[in-house]
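Hi all, long-time lurker, first post. I run a small reading group and we've been trying to get comfortable going from sequence to structure in the token notation. Rather than ask abstract questions, I figured I'd post a concrete chain and ask someone more experienced to write out its structure so we can walk through it together at our next meeting. Sequence below, copied exactly:
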Amino acid sequence: ATGEVPPYSHPMVVLLRKTGLAHLLAISGVNVAVFHLLAVFLIRLGVWILRRRHGTPDLNRLPPLLSLPACWAYVFLAGAPTPAVRSAGMITLSVVAWNRLGARAPGFAWSIMLFLTVAASPLSVFSASFLLSYGATFHLIANSAIPAGGEREGGPGGWRRTAVRWGAAAARASAVAFLGTLPVSGAFFQAVPAGAILWNVL
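-- Answer (accepted) --
Happy to help. Here is the structure in token form:
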């Protein structure tokens, strides 16, 4: 996911379009979120090592903030496509809200980024990337596939139950995003692959 787009007639592009995975060729919100999570994990690991050696205070809220510059650098190096900017902006606003207010605010972050995107580029509202990116995220938030209020999924159980919960959450999020953007996908691509939900989960 570096922003490089192969020719439209490339066999891999054709295959990904048929399976409903053509969005993997672009820098999407998922790419940015995964990059940010990886950066947070690495910084949190460094903080954990530092605390083990020097007994520093709890700094668990610091890694998400420190990861934001790397997240935005990745977005701009990839050409700053609409879905990536939307994702990085929502992550930034959510992290700030979590650190300042102690609560996640995905709906607030989505609304602010929508307003800024439309203000900066009004014609982008007619593009597939805008409609699919903001549409999918809207349906995820509206159907509580993106948790708000700072709640955490969890509960008793070993790694098997945790894996099952994560798998169920991934399947639900994929189904919500796919079904919510179905009209847009059909209008722009004239095709609705039946296995898109499964392939996106995998």
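A couple of things your group might point at:
Confidence is low (pLDDT under 50) at residues 149-154.
The chain is about 65% helix and 0% strand.
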